[in-house]
Amino acid sequence: MPVPILYVIDSFKNPHAGTEGQLYQLVQGIDRKRFSPHLLVFQESAYLKENGFPCSYTVLGRSGLTNPAAWLALWKEAKRFRESGGKIVHAFFIDPSIMCPIIFRPFGVHTVISRRDMGYWYTKKYLFLLRCSRRAVSSVIANSQAVKDVVSRNERVPKDGIDVIYNGYEERVGDASIPDEVLFLRNQYPDAVFGVIVANIRPLKRISDAIVSLAVVVQKGGNLRLVVIGDGDHNGLSQQAEALGVRERVHFLGRRSDVADCLPAFDIGILCSESEGFSNSIVEYMRSGLPVVCSSVGGNPEAVEHGVSGYLYNCGDTNELADSLMKLVLDENLRHKIGASALASSGARFSKRVMVEEHQDVYSELVS
Predict the structure, then answer these.
(1) How far apart are CA 355 and CA 340, in angstroms?
(2) How far apart are the first and last CA of the chain?
(3) pLDDT tens digits for 6-38?
(4) Are residues 104 and 140 in the same domain?
(5) With 80 as the cut, is the pLDDT of residue 175 above it?
(6) Domain identity same for 155 and 285
(7) Does 136 lie in the same domain as 241?
(8) What's the chain's Rg over C-alpha atoms?
(9) Residue ranges of E strands in 48-164
(10) 258 and 118: one domain?
(11) How many domains does the chain have?
């Protein structure tokens, strides 16, 4: 009989977002002969209403660590889950990671929590609560060694209680169908080299560093253009580019759901973030055969081998970033060589099949 697993998350709004996308892939791929998944969301979302989920789901209708009604509602769900034979709950994001171990442990249910970033959200309050609840946690899953180290150090979880499972992605079938507007942009500047950043526009992503480096490359004679794909207000970045004399070389495409189809139109994948657990964008670049230039933070060095599948630079060092970009702008053969290496590496290491199997191994060990 399949083992019931309850996945718990605050809300599910976007299957293309980092954590939500990996949860979607996991539930979609899990072996239904071995496990029976169900999703519990604290709050309903427009996406779930319109599209559903790969498994059945329940809306708790309550949220908040300081809301007694949320704790009571979750206790009732835990009781119901255990009475139906449930054995494992897997929690994502902050509030579920704190609440689920405390609520489900008395019912004899194993709690797994996922950690997928470098803890930029840590506060004294959250750390205190996480440390208090950690003894009720059966297993922690991190998506990089860097995240594992941060969790162990800050949440005081023994390293042997943390498994590293890298993000997994569907194998691509056939060639990408590049959107017409992206092809039009590309064909307007056939001689240019296009760098692309896939990131929402917010300070943590340091997209302004790429614009500074773009200006340096152009000043040195490099025919580089920059495309930014992601949600957020780009007025500040546009003004910066204008002041540096490169506004007409920066193209903002906004939020898109067809990023994988867009990427093959470009030449270099760029990420300037000051904090990354394990970047989906970097893997998507690699899966599209793009050489990667990224900041050497978090799990980035675990994905990109410097000089082989891309270049790593010290976060915030725009001259070093510009130098790496310039190498690739000036040498088409080097771009293709490094891009091919990135593609080969990503296919072997970051598959959906491996990600799902490794999660199933964790679950099986808990109930064996």
Answers:
(1) 23
(2) 14
(3) 999 999 988 877 789 899 999 999 999 999 999
(4) yes
(5) no
(6) no
(7) no
(8) 22
(9) 57-59, 88-91, 110-115, 139-142, 162-164
(10) no
(11) 2
162 and 192, same domain (yes or no): no
**Domain containing residue 207:** 180-349
Q: Considering the entire predicted model, what is its pTM?
A: 0.84
Are both 155 and 203 inside the same structural domain? no
DSSP 141-172: EESSHHHHHHHHHHH---GGGEEE----BPPP
Residues whose CB is less than 8 angstroms from the CB of residue 170 and which lie 6 or more positions away in sequence, other chains included: 25, 352
Distance, CA of 228 to CA of 146 (rounded, Å) = 26
3-state secondary structure of 212: helix
pLDDT of residue 173: 63
CB count in 10 Å sphere of residue 68: 9
Q: Which residue has the tokens 């997994």?
A: 168
Main-chain dihedrals φ then ψ at residue 266, nearest 5 degrees? -110, 180
Can you read off the two tokens belonging to residue 31?
């072996």
Residue 290 domain-assigned? yes
- Do 145 and 78 share a structural domain? yes
Residue 199 burial by CB count (10 A; 0-12/13-18/19+): exposed, middle or buried?
Answer: buried
Residues 68-115 have pLDDT tens digits of 999 999 999 999 999 999 999 999 999 999 999 999 999 999 999 999
